[in-house]
Sequence to fold (561 residues):
Amino acid sequence: MSDSPKLTHRPQWTALEHHHAGELQHSQLRDLFAADPGRAERYTVRAGDLRIDYSKHLITDETLALLQELATVTDVFGLRDAMFRGEKINVTERRAVLHTALRAPREAVIEVDGENVVPAVHAVLDKMADFSERVRSGEWTGHTGKRIRNVVNIGIGGSDLGPAMAYEALRAFTDRSLTVRFVSNVDGADLHEAVRDLDPAETLFIVASKTFTTIETITNATSARSWLLAGLDDGGTSRSSEVECGGEKAVAKHFVALSTNAEKVADFGIDTTNMFEFWDWVGGRYSYDSAIGLSLMIAIGPDRFREMLDGFHLVDEHFRTAPAASNAPLLLGLLGVWYGSFLGAQSHAVLPYSHYLSKFTAYLQQLDMESNGKSVDRDGDPVEWQTGPVVWGTPGTNGQHAYYQLLHQGTKVISADLIGFVNPVDELSPELKAQHDLLMANLFAQGQALAFGRTSDEVRAEGVPEEQVPHRTFRGNHPTTTILASELTPSVLGQLIALYEHKVFVQGAIWNIDSFDQWGVELGKVLARRVEPALTEGADVPGLDPSTAALVAAYRTLRKK
Ligand code: F6P
Fold:
């Protein structure tokens, strides 16, 4: 049990409450900008290639100073340093939190329990690079000698969202002759749709699971193995005695594993020489720059993957060394605390103005909500303050024609990140490239409209009939951060992800929660295992509540035999 005062009892916390209740409660962004011509420049910070404008936030210099004091008394930088040193800051699992070691340079020294982990990280990266090159060049063939043309990653949560998101983000850098797909859902439709048009002889499955016990992944991998063996066996030319007698040799050419659990990988029937290792100090949601990124590395090649790791590292170093006033993850984390804990915001929107970032927000949902969706502090005591927000969003401009109405004129406090790039990807035609200005005009327009709105006087001045004025008035004052980079390269993607990783870290540190466990996902898993026999065999499951028991009975009645 720690002796430090509860967060809400700290003078810095009450000072922020008073600050909000006092001068800031009725402040308007219009007024804050009018009073301070240098605000946009002063409230813009750079991290690597990212230009982060946080001037459209409901803050003043005093807000920032008070938030910085809160960060100081909660020792955010002390915890940061402990994380980078490899201390076991994941207290409930007694584990180090060292995703930063995954992108450390070869010569770095980072110790866990007295052992430098960096050589092992680079050994795995080298093994991944060698394997990726062999697949990309056609040297690694399937069981029948055919070249691998399809890569299917089977995993869920952190073993899916990261590589799936990054594959979409970096499509322009991928080998377009390869088909890369991601299967996560235990709904058989996911695997069915992923493989239905593929030739098993040309398909490599990557089974990604930190624990190698996750039921969705093992179930899908088992079905994928059956599909492979049946497909090879039916293929006539590919028929072979190995396929007929259990398929070990075929599996060895078509299945590789990404895991921390060699024993379970071997139990599944994958040769552990075809396993790419990572370690218990890599959290699932922080793992796509580990072996979990193999599908991505095959798609973009080892050099591009390395550029992405360097991008991560650039922002790691920024977070580790930049002073508080210009430390981007710190500032964004403090703003998250400000809205969540003091201004009553329940949710945070992430709105990328890039089609390639279509899976970015879904990825961040796990990163943020699995990390900071907690209601007890690091000592196990209930928290008396709001913790992580609901994170949501889809790429602009689609969202503008769906839910932005609520952002502009609804009643909720919602902060948002607008993310955009100055240049479209190279391979677009000149005509499609020309659309980019329109895309970005939308981003800039939305930031402006959300912040400054349109007053009733302005509406009236446009000749709008009086009865429509309230409906066409925009009160503004909706806070946004704008993150701008030159283009979406592997390095910039790494920088963006590291920015969010550390932002989430900062918020968890201030809220005094363990951002690195995820006990909240366990109960549902246990109950699913208990309920399944009731569905499949009609087994009596003790302890079902009346509602669930009735649903199970209805399911059994309607189930086709
Ligand atoms: O259920 C949540 C979770 O444990 C995530 O944290 C993790 O990313 C995911 O499941 C997948 O776990 P694994 O990689 O062990 O299959």
About this structure: The first strand starts at residue 44 and ends at 47. Residues 103 and 309 are 5 Å apart (CA to CA). The chain has 22 helices and 13 strands.
